[in-house]
Amino acid sequence: REMLVGRNKICDYSEEMQDAKVIHLPGWDTNIPGKEETGHRLMVPFYALVLFEKWQADIRMKRLIRDHLRYADEIQCAAARIVNALRTTELENGR
Length: 95
What we know:
The chain has 95 residues and is mainly α. It is built from three helices and no strands. Helices cover 41% and strands 0% of the residues.
């Protein structure tokens, strides 16, 4: 029940969605015309949203991802520099 999060039924994924190489989970919803940011934030790791049919496989896969899937330090540092540069640019432009 808690997985439905206010929906009436669980989301079934199409074959197109299953074959996608990238899944985008937006952190802030600003694409609603006439509305401010809704402030939704993903407060769990992305793999918490993945469900496996067998609970044993679910636990094993989530542990595997948690313990072994990491971005290289170089990527994390480069991303931090980019975010910092974007924030600085936005502050300088008064946004």
